[in-house]
Design goal:
The chain is an alpha/beta fold. It has eleven helices and eight strands. Helix 2 packs across helix 4 and helix 4 packs parallel to helix 5. The longest helix is centred in the middle third of the chain and has 17 residues. The protein binds 3-methyl-2-oxobutanoic acid. The site of 3-methyl-2-oxobutanoic acid has 11 residues, from strand 6.
Amino acid sequence: MSVHKEVKKVTTHTLLEMKQAGRKITMLTGYDFSMARIIDEAGIDVILVGDSASNVMAGHETTLPITLDQMIYHGASVVRAVERALIVVDLPFGSYQGNSKEALHSAIRIMKETGAHAVKLEGGGEVVESIQRILSAGIPVMGHLGLTPQSIYKFGTYAVRAKETEEAARLMEDAKALEKAGCFALVLEKIPSVLATQVTETIQIPSIGIGAGNGVDGQVLVVHDMLGINNDFNPRFVRKYRNLHQEMLHAFQEYIEDVRSDNFPNAKEQY
Ligand code: KIV
């Protein structure tokens, strides 16, 4: 008798149920097959194929240069690895801001060419028409408010957003507009925790915070940050669960030393 292990996949509906039941949602970014496989095995709820790939995978200073084709490459790699998690792929800068038809076309390419389950885009009221058009094709959409890195040249800084009353009120209105438009969840990035909590209590859909405190329905971190791979990125909202920069550096140094000293390969490591 073969024992088939049934995997209960996470859906957008699961996330809604988690909010209603007060169970926290876990989300991490993932960009490649091997890492995504481990993250999924760990039991994460959502893997975000973030356009932060532009920073951590490609070494760009901002998320602006990454292309739709490159996001599709990362998305498809993650999809091949994952059994359980919900996979959300970022619509990159320039693939949806132009008009809602272009947004739909980009979202369809992501869904068709990656096999992912949903897309994410940045912005408030100004992207509602695009969200509605994408939803009309049956594609779930996650919103993203607060510090939206694709607008970095408008903000001029990666500092905390919506500290002032006016911007906080606008963010609250945007959150309501995105919920009304049909988003299944919202990322709230780098805003005061009091505001993030108020938004979370106001909307019925789950909020997932990054640098937004613990009054939200879930948390997301960039996987390279929480693993401590990048030595020189240390904002206060990142908890480094490991220092993989050090671990990896030492492993590479040992390997170099072993090869140079003829210690690798040994008798058992050859044919
Ligand atoms: O691209 C990304 O990694 C993101 C998260 C920071 C939410 O959008």
